[in-house]
C-alpha cells in the first residue's frame, strides 16, 4: 500500500488499519493517526472485557438451567458449559490483567444469565436467586455429566 494514498479512519477503516501498520513498521511515528489509534487500542481492551462477560453469561445461564430444570438436561448443555469454561480459562490466561476485574464481570454476567435463564425456561424469575447459587470455583470446575 502506498503511503501517498489518502485513507482516513472515517472513510476506509480496513485501509486505515493497514496504513497505520505500515507507518509503524517503517518507523514513521510522526505520520500516525494517534487520536484514532488511542481510541482503537482502548476499544481492544473493552472487547476483551465484553468477551469475558459474554462467556460468563453463557456459562451461568446454562448452569442455572442445569440446576433448576434438570428434566431438560441435554448433551448440548454439557457442551455449552464445557466450551464456555474453556473460553473463560483461555481469556484469563491470555489476559491476566482481567483477573482483578473478575468479581465485577461475574456480577454483570450473572444478572444477564438470570434473565436469559428466565426467558429460556419459562420458570418464574424468582426461581433463580439474585446471587449465584454456586461459587466461582464450582462454576468453573464442578463436573457436569448426564446421568445414564
Number of strands: 0
What are the low-pLDDT stretches, counting only 5+ consecutive residues below 50?
Answer: none
Q: Element order, helices and strands?
A: HHHHH
Determine the strand fraction and express it as a percent band. under 5%
Mean pLDDT: 93
Query: If helices are DSSP runs of H or I spanning 4 or more residues, what is the number of helices?
Result: 5
**How many domains?**
2
Q: What Rg is obtained from the alpha carbons, in whole angstroms?
A: 21 Å
Structural class: mainly alpha
Distance between the termini: 60 Å
Helix content: 55-70%
Shape: elongated
- Give the quaternary arrangement of the chains: single chain
Give the biggest beta sheet. none
Describe the structure.
The chain contains five helices and no strands. It has 148 residues and is mostly helical.
Secondary-structure topology with pairs:
Elements (H helix, E strand, L loop, with lengths): L12 H14 L7 H35 L6 H20 L7 H20 L14 H6 L7
What attributes does this structure have?
148 residues, 2 domains, mainly alpha
Task: Summarize it.
The protein is mainly alpha-helical and 148 residues long. Helices cover 64% and strands 0% of the residues.
Amino acid at each position: 500500500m502506498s503511503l501517498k494514498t489518502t485513507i482516513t479512519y472515517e472513510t476506509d477503516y480496513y485501509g486505515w488499519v493497514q496504513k497505520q501498520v505500515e507507518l509503524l513498521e517503517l518507523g514513521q511515528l510522526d505520520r500516525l493517526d494517534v487520536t484514532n489509534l488511542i481510541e482503537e487500542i482502548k476499544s481492544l481492551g473493552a472487547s476483551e472485557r465484553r468477551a469475558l462477560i459474554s462467556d460468563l453469561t453463557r456459562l451461568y445461564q446454562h448452569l442455572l438451567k442445569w440446576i433448576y430444570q434438570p428434566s431438560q438436561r441435554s448433551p448440548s448443555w454439557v457442551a455449552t458449559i464445557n466450551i464456555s469454561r474453556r473460553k473463560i480459562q483461555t481469556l484469563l490466561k491470555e489476559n491476566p490483567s482481567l483477573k482483578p476485574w473478575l468479581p465485577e464481570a461475574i456480577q454483570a454476567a450473572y444478572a444477564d444469565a438470570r434473565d436469559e435463564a428466565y426467558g429460556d425456561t419459562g420458570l418464574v424469575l424468582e426461581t433463580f436467586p439474585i446471587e449465584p447459587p454456586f461459587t466461582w470455583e464450582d462454576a468453573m470446575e464442578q463436573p457436569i455429566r448426564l446421568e445414564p
